[in-house]
Each structure stands twice: as C-alpha cells, then as structure tokens.
C-alpha cells in the first residue's frame, strides 16, 4: 500500500491514439515517483494494457495494470499502475501491431473517438480534484483537432480547466529547470495577441506570476516583463504598447510591492538570456511563441546523428486555478505513437512540479 501521507496525483492518459499511454507507463516505471507521490492514471485500461505490452517488448519490464472504478480502490504499489478505467476505448479500436519484431506507429491520428475519450479524462480528473479526492492533476497531451471533431470546442487544456473550475483569471506557465515563463495570451492569432496586450491583462499576469512563484516556495520572486516590440518600441518608434500598456502595468505592480528588478519592460531578445543567467525567477511573455520558443530551445534536444530526441523536457502549469494542474510540454506525437520510442522526461518533470505544488500548498494533508 502506498504511503498515505504522500499526495495523490491524478494523471490523465491523453489521447488514446497518441503518445500519452506509453509515456505514462514509462514515467511510472521510475521507482522514485512512488517515493514522492501516489499516482493514479485517469484513462482507459485497454490503452494502458497495450502500452505496458510495448514497454515489455522494448525494455523487458513487467509492469502491470490494475483497473479501478473508485479512488479508494487504488493501492499505489510500484510495479502495478492503478488506472481509473473510463471504459471509453474498446481494445478492438487499438491497432494490433503485436506480430511485429518491434512496435510501430498506430497510424490513427486525430479522430472523434480519441478526442471524446481524452476530453472525458480531463473532465473526470478536474471533478476528482474539485471533490478533494486527489491532491493535484497532471495531464498528457490532447489533440485540439480531435476534441473539436468530438464536438468540444476548446483551444486546449487551459481553457477546459478554466471553464470547469469557473476561473476567469488564469495563465499558462512554462518551466524547464530555472527558466519559467507566463503568457499574456496563448492560443490566438499573432494579430489578436498584439491586441490583447492591455494594462489590466499584463498586470493580472504579473500578479499570477508572483503568486505562482510563491506557491513554489520562492519568497520574493524576481519578475522580468518582456516588451512586445523590437527594442521595446524604441520610445515609440516601433510601437507604443510598452509606453501605453506595459509600463503602466509594471508601475501598478511595483506599487503593490511586486519585485520587478528593472522597473520597466525588457527587450524580448535579451530577457530570456537574463533569466537563464539568474536575473529573474520568472518572465512575463506577451504572446505564445515569445515564451514557448526559448523554453523549447532549451528543453527539446534532438540528436542529429541518431535521428531521435535525446530529451523532450519542460512542464506546463496553469496558474490561477483553484486546483493544481501541470502538464507535459509537447504534443500527441501521432506520427510515432505506438512505436515504443516516446520520451517520458516531460511527464516526469510535470509530476515533479505537481508534487512540489501539492506539498507546498499542504493539499496532501487531506489524505493523511
């Protein structure tokens, strides 16, 4: 029986035809995970069974899958993965590639069945967290195309969590090692992203960034605020957002006692180098790619000679929610799903972050 004083983590399996099941099995083969938390997978046992077979073929491991229908049935024993079985994906829907010498890609891609299942896993894990049955939630990748094919019109996990937790003020934080980034906007066009750089939203993100770092145990977070335009607009020559929107937000945050060392927006082409150098604990980015690109340049490492990913690291945390949510920082990998070559490092990172947040918030105490 798992340690009753450790936080319970609800881990969604992600799209059943993506890399999530395989990555989940590989992550939960790390014995250290069970020393720090009690992991519970929300998904389909049929998919997890198949992922366990792939793991056995690739690594010789003997991990087992235990089907449960209630959190109280979970045992949290290393070597056996507890799966809250939603029963949405029949075994017959999973392509049979067992007769190959090595596993190969499923070749299914985005479909309504996968999208509906992935959506329901997320809905269930939020329900369990809001009910206090689990301490934190961790999500594998879903396909925006697939969930929309299934009739759920959301642009990603963050928006689903906001809707089902009735949260209006929230933002995405990406993190890899000491580099952390929050975003003023995420899944919108670049044209719309520029229009969303408004004082109130920038200030909201600065506040959430400060609170998020404090939730990780950083007593006085140092916040860097990126500009929107090249050279922060050069005093209005290349744009006025820094003058009209970003600086007023910084001034308001400083008046509240939030620590922004430079007291002004930092040019986006240098703010991340400074963050890596230890100037800031977190950076407020103005739009999706401004924050995502530096994180993925640092966390995603491709071996050109071996033609494979050495590391797919990094974690996505939604700040501002009433429950804890961390996630992998990559997609479903439909083109390789089922091949046995998915990298679990990002999920391990996400689990680590969820444990930190649960422990610091004291959410594990409810289960002791």
From TrEMBL:
Its EC number is 1.1.1.262. It comes from the Bacteria. Its cofactor is a divalent metal cation. It holds the Pfam family PdxA. GO terms for molecular function: 4-hydroxythreonine-4-phosphate dehydrogenase activity. Keywords: Metal-binding, NAD, Oxidoreductase. Homodimer. Belongs to the PdxA family. PdxA2 subfamily. This is 4-hydroxythreonine-4-phosphate dehydrogenase PdxA.
């Amino acid at each position: 029986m798992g340690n009753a004083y450790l936080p319970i983590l609800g881990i969604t399996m992600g799209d059943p035809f993506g890399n999530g099941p395989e990555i989940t099995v590989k992550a939960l083969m790390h014995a250290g995970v069970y020393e720090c938390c009690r992991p519970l997978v929300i998904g389909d046992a049929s998919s997890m069974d198949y992922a366990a077979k792939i793991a056995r073929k690739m690594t010789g491991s003997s991990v087992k899958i235990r089907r449960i229908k209630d959190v109280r049935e979970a045992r949290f024993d290393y070597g056996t993965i507890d799966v809250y079985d939603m029963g949405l994906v029949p075994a017959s829907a999973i392509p049979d590639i067992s007769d190959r010498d090595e596993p190969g890609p499923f070749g299914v891609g985005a479909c309504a069945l996968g999208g509906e299942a992935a959506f329901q896993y997320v809905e269930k894990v939020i329900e369990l967290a809001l009910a206090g049955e689990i301490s934190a939630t961790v999500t594998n990748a879903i396909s925006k195309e697939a969930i929309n094919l299934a009739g759920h019109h959301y642009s990603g996990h963050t928006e689903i969590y906001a809707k089902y937790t009735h949260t209006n003020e929230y933002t995405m934080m990406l993190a890899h090692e000491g580099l952390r980034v929050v975003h003023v906007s995420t899944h919108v066009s670049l044209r719309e992203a520029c229009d969303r750089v408004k004082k109130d939203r920038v200030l909201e993100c600065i506040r959430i960034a400060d609170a998020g770092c404090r939730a990780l145990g950083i007593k006085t977070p140092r916040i860097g605020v990126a500009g929107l335009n090249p050279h922060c607009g050069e005093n209005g020559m290349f744009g006025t957002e820094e003058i009209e929107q970003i600086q007023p937000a910084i001034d308001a945050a400083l008046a509240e006692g939030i620590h922004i060392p430079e007291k002004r927006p930092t040019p986006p082409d240098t703010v991340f180098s400074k963050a890596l150098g230890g100037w800031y604990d977190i950076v407020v980015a103005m739009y999706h790619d401004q924050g995502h690109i530096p994180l993925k340049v640092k966390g995603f490492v491709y071996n050109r000679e071996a033609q494979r990913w050495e590391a797919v690291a990094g974690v996505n945390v939604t700040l501002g929610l009433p429950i804890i949510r961390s996630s992998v920082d990559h997609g479903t990998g439909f083109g390789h799903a089922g091949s046995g070559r998915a990298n679990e490092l990002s999920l391990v990172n996400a689990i680590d972050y969820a444990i930190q947040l649960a422990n610091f918030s004291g959410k594990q105490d409810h289960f002791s």
